[in-house]
Design goal:
Strand content: over 45%
Number of strands: 50
Helix content: under 10%
Length: about 650
């Protein structure tokens, strides 16, 4: 037999049903019944629980903002900067501030009957603040202790206009439908005012839309102001030269005077704008400019080159090639220059871990590992041959009985990029720039027996197939730490995979290993610049290679190229008007140098292609100078290279 229901319970159920009407099917208006001093909310007949009860305070009825926002098919967010609570629904935006009787409705300020407040972590707002924005009708029944709200939920007639920039008589305008209904009803009709597929004259046009839902309810108007601009005018290319006639080898100064009606010149292309010419006769220079819309302007000017020489090509290039740029010489003549002798000294304890073998990533695994302590430098240089994207990780494992730390001091990453010379040059530049800045001082604590990813700037790089990444970095440790260079597919958890991975063998061609005494100082006290001279660096004879071990195999290793070794060259007596340049002797070279603590690339826009190129690093001024040059040989470039010290020609006026 079923349970018996008491007469009192039946009466209570009957009274409850009378008190809380159920919304009839197809009813156009929403109804929300709130029970005084309770958290009960009956929305269209269904019970919901508010986070706080309906509360009366100094004659004002307050409701939980987030709870009623949900019943209005909206939400509440907090703007921590403005310290405002934002209630958004459809086209309505209401902003409240706790303790303030001022609030805004779609940007218009108005006053509240009472100030919102926070009750047990919940924002409470005056119930009547919702009436006007939502067109609500409110009624109350004191006997039944209920407050009833009724309102029509309207569709939202939103739309956007494309493109963002519209030109009179030129641009075809599209209207992107963003209409919606808070209750998910279908949009069945629309009407427009001011809509056009194009606009013939400049100005601001108001376009308004209404939409109707399946119940026949129309939205409020939704308007967008469409700004129509004058038709785009092509940019005007123009330039001047400081003169109209020049001697051969005389510097030409160009001044770009190009203009655009929107000040949006995207590309500037010069043709034949040499700094100087070395054959007599007319020379025509052309400037082409392109704006963001693809419109082009072009201007040409012809100058005359006289049959008289001011500077030879060689002297002109030495004097006027910009620092970070390059000029051409006879590469064979460099080998005839006297050499500057020097001695190397080691400064401080510095361990270099170089992981460059296997250089090509064909499989997941441990590419190198060793235990190191104190100051540790890493050089990694790899290209992904796998079809899957991969990540390269530096894993630090604490095999000690106590907690240890790894402190990241500087990190220079280059790539991902398709060419090894690109990533090597970028990584060296970023690393050297880091040496001009305060240490990162990023401390990573590693409990005993555990592993952590360090130098995450490297593993942040998702390396696609055929792409290269290079990293130079410095860390310090508080105790011996086992470092592992690990490669896994980009979507895998490296620490979970680590126990499964095998130590991979070398590829037999490239270098990996651990090398000590990896900081080198060079002091040159002799006078530099009285005559042309060169200094040989990163070769196998004068500048000896670092020796070390591949600890995974026990093989003795030679650090070919000394990549990862950090050099500081101090020239104590460089004569006035001396050019210091870089001349590659093994092939192409793309790197970077700190010259008196200023970063200089070789070169800023390209690389040194061969032994006939000189990259300009520095020129001394009118006095004897001390010049300091710091560098590490760039991965992906050929070695050795020579530093050239060339007396500059006299300036002519």
């Amino acid at each position: 037999m079923g349970k018996k229901v008491s007469l009192v319970a039946l009466v209570a159920l009957f009274l409850f049903a009378v008190a809380i009407p159920v919304q009839a099917q197809g009813q156009l208006q929403d109804q929300l019944v709130l029970i005084q001093k309770t958290n009960q909310m009956y929305h269209n007949g269904k019970l919901y629980k508010a986070s706080q009860p309906l509360t009366e305070k100094k004659g004002v009825t307050y409701v939980a903002a987030r709870s009623i926002a949900e019943r209005l098919y909206g939400k509440v967010v907090y703007d921590s900067k403005l310290k405002e609570y934002i209630l958004t629904t459809g086209q309505q935006e209401l902003r409240y501030k706790a303790g303030s009787t001022a609030y805004t409705i779609n940007g218009a300020s108005t006053k509240l009957d009472g100030a919102p407040f926070v009750q047990q972590g919940t924002l409470m707002i005056p119930l009547r603040s919702l009436l006007k924005p939502y067109g609500m009708k409110i009624s109350s029944n004191a006997e039944q202790k209920k407050v009833t709200l009724e309102w029509t939920v309207k569709p939202v007639a939103a739309f956007t206009v494309s493109p963002a920039t519209i030109y009179a008589g030129e641009t075809e305008v599209s209207y992107i439908d963003k209409a919606s209904h808070p209750k998910g009803l279908l949009i069945t009709d629309e009407r427009w005012e001011g809509q056009a597929s194009s606009f013939d004259t400049p100005g601001t046009y108001k376009v308004t839309r209404w939409v109707q839902d399946e119940n026949g309810v129309w939205s409020d108007p939704f308007s967008v102001n469409v700004v129509v601009k004058q038709p785009n005018l092509p940019p005007v290319a123009n330039f001047t030269t400081d003169k109209n006639s020049y001697k051969m080898g005389e510097m030409i100064h160009y001044t770009d005077l190009s203009t655009d009606d929107e000040n949006k010149i995207k590309k500037t292309e010069w043709t034949n704008n040499a700094k100087g010419f070395f054959t007599p006769g007319p020379q025509t220079i052309t400037l082409k400019v392109t704006d963001t819309h693809g419109a082009v302007g072009e201007f040409s000017k012809t100058i005359m080159i006289e049959d008289e020489t001011l500077y030879s090509k060689q002297d002109f290039d030495m004097l006027f090639t910009e620092v970070g740029d390059k000029y051409q010489i006879d590469g064979a003549s460099v080998l005839k220059l006297p050499t500057v002798s020097y001695e190397l000294s080691v400064v401080g304890q510095q361990t270099l871990i170089r992981s460059n073998s296997p250089e090509h990533i064909d499989e997941e695994g441990i590419y190198y590992s060793d235990t190191a302590t104190g100051n540790v430098r890493f050089l990694t240089h790899n290209q992904n041959n796998r079809a899957n994207p991969v990540r390269i990780y530096i894993i630090a494992t604490n095999e000690n009985a106590e907690e240890a730390t790894v402190t990241e001091e500087r990190v220079g990453v280059g790539g991902p990029a398709p060419y090894v010379s690109q990533t090597g040059k970028a990584a060296v530049g970023n690393y050297l720039f880091g040496r001009t800045q305060p240490s990162l001082n990023k401390v990573i604590k590693i409990p005993p027996g555990e592993s952590r990813v360090v130098l995450s700037k490297l593993s942040d790089v998702k390396l696609a197939q055929d792409r290269v990444v290079t990293m130079y970095s410095d860390v310090s440790t508080s105790a011996p730490i086992k470092f592992s260079i690990v490669v896994v597919d980009a979507d895998k958890d490296v620490l979970a995979e680590l126990p499964k991975l095998q130590q991979l063998p070398r590829d037999g061609k490239h270098v990996r290993g651990t090398f000590h005494d990896a900081n080198r100082n060079i002091h040159v006290l002799d006078t530099i610049g009285n005559e042309p001279a060169r200094m040989i660096l990163a070769d196998k004879v004068v500048d000896t290679r670092l020796s070390g071990y591949d600890v995974t195999t026990g093989d003795i290793m030679s650090n070919d190229g000394n990549n990862g070794a950090y050099y500081v060259l101090r020239l104590y007596n460089v004569q006035p008007h001396t050019l210091i340049g870089l001349n590659p002797r093994g092939g192409h070279y793309g790197g970077a140098f700190l010259v008196n603590n200023k970063l200089v690339y070789t070169t800023t826009t390209t690389i040194l292609s061969n032994a006939n190129d000189v990259g300009v690093l520095y020129r001394t001024g009118n006095d004897v100078e001390q010049v300091t040059i710091a560098f590490t040989p760039a991965s992906g470039s050929n070695l050795p290279f020579n530093l050239l010290f060339l007396p500059l020609p006299e300036l002519k006026y």
